[in-house]
TrEMBL record:
Keywords on record: Cell cycle, Cell division, Chromosome, Cytoplasm, DNA condensation, Mitosis, Nucleus, Phosphoprotein
Start-end of Basic and acidic residues biased regions: 943-958, 1351-1360
PANTHER family for the chain: CONDENSIN, CONDENSIN COMPLEX SUBUNIT 1
InterPro entries, A to Z: ARM-like, ARM-type_fold, CND1/NCAPD3, Cnd1_C, Condensin_cplx_su1, Condensin_cplx_su1_N
Record Pfam families: Cnd1, Cnd1_N
Record note on quaternary structure: Component of the condensin complex, which contains the SMC2 and SMC4 heterodimer, and three non SMC subunits that probably regulate the complex: NCAPH/BRRN1, NCAPD2/CAPD2 and NCAPG. Interacts with histones H1 and H3.
Disordered: annotated segments: 943-962, 1286-1375
Residues covered by the Condensin complex subunit 1 C-terminal domain: 1056-1217
Ranges for domain Condensin complex subunit 1 N-terminal: 77-240
Family recorded in the similarity comment: Belongs to the CND1 (condensin subunit 1) family.
Function field: Regulatory subunit of the condensin complex, a complex required for conversion of interphase chromatin into mitotic-like condense chromosomes. The condensin complex probably introduces positive supercoils into relaxed DNA in the presence of type I topoisomerases and converts nicked DNA into positive knotted forms in the presence of type II topoisomerases. May target the condensin complex to DNA via its C-terminal domain. May promote the resolution of double-strand DNA catenanes (intertwines) between sister chromatids.
Protein name, entry field: Condensin complex subunit 1
Coiled coil: none
């Protein structure tokens, strides 16, 4: 067929070119075989050289054959075909401009060039798409194999790098489309198929996920420009809109690419309307459709969010069509619309000079953002807070909205979502950092100026009102006489003007009055303002408008015009009725104070409003601090880090309450999370290591002052945390030498300072010595002189701090095997120990409460640093005991009656003596087990090394020694020998009659056994502690005194004694677990002690013992659960922390829940129903694993059959409702429906199970919803008709007794409630409901005889059951 006789139709598929569709339609005649393709391509090239671009008309079959065999032909041939076709299309695009301008071009030539254009473009584009498809498949293979040498493999596959060849082809097509090629078509209308052909390849390229890679940026830009030309020149708007929306739905990677393209079209190509079209298409998507299409919703959301960031002004006009998505179910679309609104507020609707319409739009957007801060979805709430954070950071939030948005942020701090809480904290921090009020936000600092300026404003208003009243009190007659001369002069000037000129100058307001009364009021007001010209004009106009009304009715015609008008004006101004109304109005606009007075009043009002806003802002920050400080110990690391950063910022703004938060974060230095620990260090680094000051000394002084504030009323734990932080700073050399220098100057009083400042300086020096011992070690004599020299009266607080500082120069830990040098010790004759002994013995006879903590520190320091510390401490004890005996002798010599033999010792002396003996006993034990044991090990290791070096090589290889070394028995045997040696000393020697400590045992036991005789609270507390310390030494002595200790623990009326003994027994449980194990119920019993102090101490001790696996948990841990509802917040927080830590120990809580539920719901010893719900809601929150949930559901359902009361049934139903059930858990409930079906008549139980159904329906699949519906039907049937409602007609219920016999027993027997008959089980000693009551010991305080009253339990009350607890090594027991 001749090229001039056919027409090339662009096919929808390549196969259409093989079929004849209509007359004169081009059809491929022959598909050339692969073997002949190279020669045919060369023939095409030869024809091209002769005929130019029209050569395609004769050789299109060759290109079609290459496309047909594309997967099979040689890569070189593909490359040649692409290169040649590119040259053909390029040549054609160069020739077309001249042809299009040729008016003499014939129809046949035009048709030929049109066919050639379509053939060339079709061939080039199909070849491009074939290469792209092959490249996409290769990239997927590379992802599976691995990314190594991916580029080289791709190049080897194609013979060239296709990623570099795409861009020139796309640029060539763009150049072609920029020509005015529409004249090649009839009527200059380009067929839609041609435009779709070109744009289709662009969309095909965009579908490749690698298009987003940075290396493909040129391709993206080329595609964007090609589509931009199609949009502007070829009416591609509608098709592009539909295609873009479809691609956003199906290709998640395309959102940022399409955003860049659309924003470029809207700005560079002027196609802003495409933004509106795309947004309208998205807006028309139904919310229900998007709720089902999560991928499409995600694509739309990303597109809208990024588009708003690039072209917010263009998007602003179309945002209204998106508002329906704010009420849709898909949270991503809500987030996208809110983000778009925020971008418009930031970039378009920002500033103080907005028009009213723009300001209203901005307010509506902010209202919407604020409303969605309470959205049902936590991600939307979080996003709203994030957007407000950006708005605040860029200072785009109007001041009038500060209070509302801050209230939103403070309210969201209590949100259940961790993400929302985190973003609420960030928003409040942004408010602080960008607040327009002040760099210091203290309530106290702001309240004073606010009150002062408010009072000043009230005075100014009062003065203004009094001035106005005084002006109003002037008689109208007097005012009229005063204004009359000027009024007459003005009137004469107006009367001299021509009437026409006067009418032209007359203002419109002269005729504005609707009635005569309004006209009179207007005239009176103008006269009062001295606007005489307007008053005269209004009067003359009113006379013509109201000729029949008083006082404008025409009067005597013989009078002159001037006289008439003056008379009329005088009548109006002096009218009593008008005078009562108008003067106030006049004064409201022009006060006698003048314009300057009004300006001053306005400025004062603005100042007061500013101060009021600042004060309200400060109050909101203070409120937030109280809430955020409670979030300091959340489980989420990111939240804790945000809280720490918030308090750093609050502190920098001078909020007084920030100091509490800064203190609360101190314990986080021990956190196991490195991020939290580093956040604390950074916080203190910002707050304290970078103070402001002109010099290094001034900065050091500010740093010391800030650290000293933290030490005020600080607990021991706070001081230890601060010490750890300062140690880190010292080790990293972050503290300047000027700080240490100034601390020494304050400690030695070279710089004037108060006693408290001096004491804090010594304390800080001791903390620094932990990091660098030489800070104190090089000035030891100076420290001794500072705190231990003779003074009157002695400063025991300073002396105690000096001792603690000196103690930091040595390592308190047990010596490790790697250390070969002996530990640091000072000789007994050192001045330090001499002064310590003197201060302890001299202060013994004085009732100073600070002496007790000082002597404890002194004894500890002596054992830590002295050589032979037991000698020094024995001298202390002997000296104090000698003083006590001397006091007794003085009392006996002063007795009036020689026959009286009862000797009385002051209570404080006895308390001092026993307390000192207890401290020495405990430190002697520590000294033996740590220092002496460590020294023995060190010497043995050194000896073994020496022997090892001196042995001959042949002696080293003996068989027995080798076997022992291989088995590791040499070191273990030696360790056991040394441990037995230390244990023997403690058991046999320390408390025998030959030792100093043994002399105090009878006195100590006498005081503890006779609380009636020795009833002083301090004495009882000191004696009980001392007895506990003595018991730590020897297992035999401990065993003999345990009954006495637990008797005092249970029956002492003094909370201090019970609290101390709780600590003592906890330590004994660690040291001698086998001895204390039978007494464990007595430890748990203290968790219900009536005294808050005792419950708190018991909670701390039991937390430690349980987490260390030192006491039995099963059967009694419910007592810890009861603390969750303790009225004291600190105790409840302690219990929550315990269960948090316990939840980290595998399945601990899951294993304990059956016992806890059984005991707390027990009608005889449990808790009330509401507290039970509170406890179980917290505990069941730890059950997160599906298998645990399913198992618990089954056990709880089976537990319904063994429960005895309706209360237990309700409790079990509540527990089931609190579990995070899954579909499998629902099937477990259906399988065990018979267990609880007959209990559903109770409304509470029925409601609990209905709540389970509602939870299961949320987000359930169709199968899960069907199962939930079935379960609900069975619930309602049983609720209304009982269990019979589920039986089929004619069936009979099984025998209940038989049912019970066929119930499968749960694997965990703890769910089975014991029978009421408990004949074989002896109740624990702590149960008050036991049938056999224990004998009570009454503590009497009125004993007058010398008879001793025993406070011990009887022999039959002593627990006999012992449970041995194995430990790895006995010599590692701590005190």
């Amino acid at each position: 067929m001749s090229p001039q006789l056919y027409e090339f139709h662009l096919p929808l598929s390549p196969e259409e070119l093989l079929k004849s569709g209509s007359v004169n339609q081009y059809v491929v005649q022959e598909v050339v075989s692969i073997r002949h393709l190279p020669s045919q391509l060369k023939a095409f090239q030869a024809t091209f050289r002769a005929q130019g671009p029209l050569a395609i008309l004769e050789h299109f079959d060759t290109i079609y054959s290459i496309l047909h065999h594309f997967r099979s032909i040689d890569p070189g041939l593909k490359e040649d075909a692409l290169e040649f076709l590119t040259k053909v299309v390029s040549r054609h695009s160069q020739e077309l401009p001249a042809l299009l301008e040729d008016a003499t071009l014939s129809a046949s030539d035009r048709s030929a060039h049109l066919n050639a254009l379509k053939m060339n473009c079709y061939a080039l584009i199909r070849l491009l798409e074939s290469f792209e498809t092959t490249a996409s498949q290769t990239s997927l293979v590379d992802l599976d194999v691995g990314g190594k040498n991916k580029k080289s493999r791709s190049k080897a596959t194609h013979g060239f790098d296709w990623e570099e060849e795409r861009q020139p082809v796309l640029q060539l097509l763009t150049q072609l489309l920029q020509l005015d090629i529409r004249h090649l078509w009839n009527h200059s209308i380009i067929e839609e198929e041609f435009v779709s052909l070109v744009t289709g390849c662009c969309y095909h390229l965009l579908e490749n996920p690698t298009i987003t890679h940075q290396k493909n940026r040129p391709t993206r830009e080329a595609v964007t420009h090609l589509l931009g030309v199609a949009l502007t020149r070829y009416n591609h708007m509608f098709s592009a809109t539909v295609k873009i929306v479809q691609m956003l739905q199906h290709f998640e990677h395309l959102a940022p690419v399409l955003v860049a393209a659309v924003s470029l079209w809207a700005t560079d190509y002027g196609m802003k309307s495409i933004v509106g079209e795309i947004v309208r298409e998205i807006g028309q998507k139904g919310p229900q459709e998007l709720s089902r299409d999560a991928s499409g919703a995600k694509g739309f959301a990303s597109f809208l969010t990024e588009l708003a960031e690039r072209v917010p002004a263009v998007l602003l006009s179309s945002v209204c069509v998106l508002l329906d998505h704010l009420d849709g179910e898909n949270y991503m679309m809500r987030n996208a619309v809110l983000a778009a609104m925020a971008e418009m507020v930031l970039q378009v609707l920002n500033g103080d000079h907005l028009e009213d319409t723009a300001r209203d739009t901005r307010d509506q957007f902010l209202d919407t953002l604020q409303a969605h801060g309470h959205d049902v979805n936590s991600f939307v709430r979080s996003r709203a807070l994030q957007l407000f954070t950006r708005i605040v950071q860029q200072k785009a939030l109007p001041l009038t909205r500060f209070q509302g948005v801050m209230a939103l942020a403070v309210g969201r701090l209590a949100d259940r979502s961790v993400l929302v809480c985190k973003n609420a904290i960030q928003l409040l921090a942004s408010f602080l950092a960008n607040n327009p009020f002040s760099c210091k936000l203290s309530d106290a600092d702001l309240a004073g100026p606010l009150q002062k300026e408010t009072q000043k404003l009230q005075e100014m208003r009062s003065q203004r009102q009094s001035t106005a009243a005084a002006a109003a009190a002037v008689e109208p007659e007097e005012e009229w006489e005063a204004m009359l001369p000027e009024l007459q002069s003005t009137l004469r000037q107006l009367l001299e003007l021509p009437q026409e000129v006067e009418d032209e100058e007359a203002p419109e307001e002269t005729a504005a009055a609707a009635t005569a009364e309004e006209a009179k009021g207007r005239i009176r007001q103008l006269l009062a303002k001295a606007r005489y010209k307007q008053a005269i004009r209004v009067t003359r106009a009113a006379r013509s408008h109201f000729p029949e009304s008083e006082p404008f009715r025409l009067t005597d015609a013989e009078e002159s015009e001037e006289t008439k008008l003056l008379s009329l004006l005088g009548t109006i101004f002096k009218d009593p009725a008008a005078s009562a109304q108008i003067p106030g109005q006049a004064m409201g606009t022009d006060a006698p104070a003048g314009p300057s007075g009004s300006d001053e009043l306005l400025k004062q009002e603005m100042l007061v409003q500013y101060l009021q806003d600042a004060h309200n802002f400060s109050q909101k920050i203070t409120e937030a601090i109280g809430i955020i400080s409670k979030m300091m110990y959340e489980n989420t690391t990111t939240v804790v880090q945000e809280v720490i950063e918030f308090f750093v910022m609050v502190s920098q703004f001078g909020v007084p309450q920030a100091l509490c938060g800064v203190r609360r974060m101190l314990p986080l230095i021990w956190s196991k999370e490195p991020g939290v620990r580093e956040a604390v260090l950074n916080a203190y680094r910002q707050l304290y290591l970078s103070p402001r000051g002109d010099s290094a000394r001034a900065r050091a002084q500010a740093l010391i002052q800030n650290l000293s504030l933290l030490l005020v009323d600080a607990s021991v734990g706070t001081i230890e945390c601060l010490e750890e932080i300062l140690c880190e700073f010292v080790r990293k050399d972050e503290l300047r030498p000027a700080v240490t220098q100034l601390l020494w100057e304050r400690a030695t009083e070279k710089v004037p300072c108060s006693p408290a400042e001096r004491c804090s300086s010594v304390m800080l020096l001791g903390m620094l010595a932990r990091g660098k011992p030489e800070i104190v070690g090089s000035n030891l004599d100076t420290l001794v002189s500072i705190g231990l020299d003779r003074k009157s009266p002695p400063d025991y607080r300073l002396a105690q701090q000096v001792c603690q500082a000196i103690a930091n120069i040595s390592d308190r830990r047990k010596p490790s095997l790697g250390k070969r040098h002996p530990p640091f010790r000072l000789p007994q004759e050192h001045r330090l120990f001499e002064r310590l002994r003197e201060m302890v013995t001299e202060g013994f006879a004085h009732p100073d409460p600070l002496w007790i903590p000082f002597k404890e520190t002194a004894v500890t320091l002596t054992y830590q640093l002295a050589e032979g510390p037991e000698v020094i401490c024995a001298q202390m004890l002997q000296g104090c005991a000698r003083q006590a005996l001397e006091k007794l002798e003085e009392k006996s010599s002063s007795q009036e009656e020689p026959s009286q033999t009862i000797l009385v010792l002051p209570t404080f002396l006895l308390m001092h003596l026993l307390s000192l003996a207890g401290d020495v006993a405990l430190q002697q034990l520590v000294h033996l087990e740590q220092a002496v044991s460590g020294e023995l090990i060190r010497r043995r290791v050194l000896q073994e090394e020496q022997e090892h070096k001196t042995k001959e090589p042949k002696e080293k290889n003996t068989g027995s020694e080798t076997m022992e070394e291989e088995l590791g028995l040499v070191g273990a045997t030696a360790d056991d020998t040394e441990a037995e040696l230390i244990r023997g000393i403690c058991e046999l020697e320390l408390l025998d009659g030959k030792q100093v400590l043994a002399a105090f045992v009878p006195l100590l036991l006498k005081v503890c056994n006779n609380p009636g005789l020795y009833s002083n609270e301090d004495l009882c507390a000191g004696a009980s502690l001392a007895l506990g310390k003595f018991c730590m030494i020897s297992a035999s002595f401990c065993d003999s005194q345990l009954r006495l200790l637990f008797t005092m623990l249970e029956k002492s009326p003094l909370p201090t004694v019970r609290s101390n003994l709780m600590v003592v027994t906890g330590d004994l449980a660690i040291r001698f677990p086998n001895l204390v194990d039978p007494w464990t119920p007595h430890l748990y019993a203290r968790l219900r002690d009536p005294a808050q102090q005792v419950r708190k101490t018991a909670g701390l001790v039991m937390t430690h013992l349980i987490l260390k696996d030192m006491v039995k948990v099963k059967g009694q841990v419910s007592e810890m659960a009861v603390l969750l509802i303790d009225p004291e917040p600190q105790i409840a927080a302690l219990a929550r922390n315990f269960f948090n830590e316990l939840s980290h120990k595998g399945n601990a809580i899951y294993n304990l829940l059956p016992d806890i539920i059984s005991r707390l719901s027990d009608p005889e010893g449990g808790v009330e129903e509401e507290p039970f719900h509170t406890i179980m809601k917290q505990l069941l929150a730890y059950i997160t694993k599906d298998k645990q949930t399913e198992s618990l559901v089954e056990k709880l359902c089976q537990r319904f059959r063994t429960a005895r009361t309706e209360r237990q049934h309700r409790d079990l139903a509540y527990c089931v409702s609190q579990l995070p059930l899954t579909e499998r858990g629902l099937h477990r409930m259906l399988d065990n429906f018979d267990c609880f079906g007959d209990k559903l008549s109770d409304e509470c139980i029925f409601g609990a199970f209905l709540s389970v159904v509602s939870k299961l329906r949320r987000g359930a699949k169709p199968e899960g919803k069907a199962a939930a519906d079935e379960f609900e039907q069975k619930l309602r049937a049983c609720h209304t008709r009982g269990l019979d409602g589920l039986e089929e007609t004619g069936s009979q219920r099984a025998n209940p007794a038989r049912k019970l016999s066929t119930v499968s027993v749960a694997p965990d027997s703890d769910f089975v409630t014991p029978r009421p008959c408990r004949t074989t089980r002896r109740p624990p000693p702590t149960q008050q409901r036991s049938s056999k009551r224990l004998p009570r010991v009454v503590f009497s305080s009125d004993e007058s005889s010398g008879e001793e009253l025993s406070a011990e339990m009887r022999e039959e009350e002593t627990p006999r059951k012992t449970t041995p607890i194995r430990r790895a090594s006995a010599h590692r027991r701590g005190p």
